[in-house]
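User: Quick sanity check before I run a bigger batch. Here is a single chain. Can you write out its predicted 3D structure?
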Amino acid sequence: MAPATLSRPLTAGYNAKNNAKIAQNRIKALEKKVADLAEIAELLRKTAKNSQKLYREHIKHTAALTATGKDPREILRPYQPDLFNGDADKLQGFLTSLRSYQMYYLIQFTTKEL
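Assistant: Done. Predicted structure follows.
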């Protein structure tokens, strides 16, 4: 029975080394999970911040819509100017509205000749 008693310490040493490797692998796996969770938490923080920004914009938009009854983008959009009737007193107003209309719809008014 002497050989059996000699194999026991060898097995115990092997098990200890094996257990240490298993523990190290589990620690690495847990560290990776912690890093992944930290990344997810950061993404959630950014998403929450963006959500808050969009919510504030929505509140402003809703308040403007309630106050005026119109969409804020609609308020800024210039109307097409009426035809100029030759009245010199209305020339400045016509030119101003024409210029703002051209600036808003810039893509329709190019200076390139076809």
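The two ends are 106 Å apart (CA to CA).

User: Great, the batch can go ahead then.
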